[in-house]
Amino acid sequence: MEKQKVIFSDLQTMSYREAWDLQEGLLQKNVKIKSDIGNGSSVTGESTTNYLLFVEHPAVYTLGKSGHIENVLLNTEELDAKQIQFFHTNRGGDITFHGAGQIVGYPILDLEKFYTDIGRYLRELEEVIILTLAEYGIKGERSPGETGVWIDPSVKGKERKICAMGVRCSRWITMHGFALNVNTDLSYFNFIVPCGIQNKQVTSLEKELGRKIDIEETKEKVRKNFEKVFNCELSAQNNLKKEIETVSGAKNLSV
After folding, report:
1. The whole model's pTM is what?
2. What is the dihedral of CA 9, 11, 17, 21, to 10 degrees?
3. 14 in helix, strand or coil?
4. pLDDT per residue over 169-223, tens digit each?
5. What domain range includes position 245?
6. What number of CA atoms fall less than 13 Å from residue 91's CA on the CB side?
7. Catalytic residue numbers, as ranges
8. What's the CATH number where 153 sits?
9. Which of 34, 45, 71, 178 is 20 to 30 A from 101, alpha carbon to alpha carbon?
10. What is the DSSP-derived secondary structure letter of residue 122?
11. Count of the separate structural domains present in the chain
12. What letter does residue 71 receive in the DSSP assignment?
């Protein structure tokens, strides 16, 4: 099978709101292309574009569309005092945290160019992280019925999640994605019930290995394993925000 092309951009540090708007702009751009193709008004040769975004967010809690607000253990005043933002999002999953020292990956893929199977898509996202952890000598695993990547998921009392996942899909275009804890301040997880799962821990590469991790090195490993698992080629592009603001007015999106 021919390798799919995926445009890659490392957004560095960006607010959750801004990154969400950017994702929505990319998704809607692709959805419009599909709609135009369907009604015969597409520009000749026009096709959807696949993207992979990396970003680190300032401290923020995000709640999935079917999540439970009671899993946020702080009220609005307490969130403000700790300078933690909060967003109720349109992804799957429950509550999670994003912050410095964490690799957040947002694939905006046209799954019709890969396969039309959301379950497989989530398992392959997990596989990217499992392969990355293996390069550090860590055995990452799946936990039945719980999306994401875990360490010792079958050892009661020692289960710990290292990568959370939650996605949205519209006309087989994906957005949102995964959050891998690298050097993340894990104390932020004390103020939520992570992913709505009681009595299980959250961990990071730093905690597991007992040392600070070169996050740029980890990003490169994730990139390489993404290419391997999804049989694609990543090409760097660093001006996505400007491009999408021009094409679809993403800066004015209200979602």
Report:
1. 0.91
2. -30
3. coil
4. 999 999 999 999 999 999 999 998 876 666 779 999 999 999 999 999 999 999 9
5. 4-252
6. 27
7. 195
8. 3.30.930.10
9. 71
10. H
11. 1
12. G
